UniProtKB/TrEMBL annotation:
Molecular-function GO terms, alphabetical: translation initiation factor activity
UniProt GO BP: signal transduction
Protein name: Translation initiation factor IF-2
PROSITE patterns listed in its UniProt record: TIR
All copies of domain TIR, residue ranges: 65-205
Pfam families noted in UniProt: TIR_2
Keyword terms of this UniProt record: Initiation factor, Protein biosynthesis
InterPro entries (alphabetical): DNA-bd_dom_put_sf, TIR_dom, Toll_tir_struct_dom_sf
Length: 229
């Protein structure tokens, strides 16, 4: 993951820039403005800070303070989807991955409905083949509907293993592509050929999971306090 400035890094994490500056300061990384460079060392310190603050308890034991992730992918991409799933689970993130978590005999439409509506985030693995699968497109449309119902929150988390999503993808519903492309889309390399970049990308996903959980708890606490007034 190359160096970027504060504004670019905030966009990658889908985080308000003022909040990123605040969290960087908490982590001991001093940045004054949006154009300040965030180095690899800065990002590592931020992740370490988030892990300590939200990922473990006072005894150093892992807790469940991560967002939960439903992994949506095409069957042809199962190998890399499994590698992504295993990496996320090794970091303490609760995921739903079809080969491991589906129940024999359960209807597929119910599996999809429960998954995209019950998990905090939906991790969409984009590729030339997956974005042509009706099941993946159906899950994607349901996620976007959920975002609209919940006031436009960021539930969809798209990543990609090729460049198809950026320009060549032309679904029948053009608005779907527009909504996906309006977000930062992380490129996931094959861990067999570039394990270092793969793990750094997983670091970014972990940081986003920690951040969204922290923000959700902050909002819940604010709502609780407001209800007492």
């Amino acid at each position: 993951m190359a160096s970027s400035n504060v504004a670019e890094f905030a966009a990658e994490l889908q985080m308000p820039t003022n909040l990123l500056l605040e969290i960087l300061q908490e982590a001991g990384v001093q940045k004054a403005g949006l154009a300040d460079v965030v180095s690899e060392t800065d990002k590592a310190r931020l992740l370490h800070h988030l892990r300590r603050k939200h990922g473990s308890n006072d005894e150093g034991k892992r807790t469940t303070r991560y967002s939960t992730l439903f992994i949506s992918y095409g069957g042809c991409d199962e190998l890399i989807a499994r590698q992504i799933n295993e990496s996320l689970k090794s970091r303490g993130i609760k995921t739903w991955f079809f080969p491991d978590d589906s129940v024999p005999g359960e209807k597929l439409h119910r599996v999809m409905h429960v998954g995209v509506n019950s998990y905090d985030r939906v991790l969409l693995v984009c590729s030339r083949t997956s974005l042509g699968r009706s099941g993946v497109l159906n899950e994607l449309e349901r996620v976007l509907e959920r975002e609209a119902r919940e006031g436009g929150g960021d539930i969809l988390l798209p990543i990609t293993i090729d460049d198809f999503v950026f320009s060549d993808w032309k679904p029948q519903n053009e608005d779907v592509a527009t909504q996906v492309r309006s977000r930062v889309i992380c490129r996931i390399p094959d861990p067999g050929t570039d394990s270092i970049i793969f793990e750094k990308t997983m670091d970014r996903l972990e940081a986003m999971s920690l951040y969204t959980t922290s923000l959700s708890r902050h909002d819940s606490e604010k709502a609780r306090l407001l209800s007492m007034t």
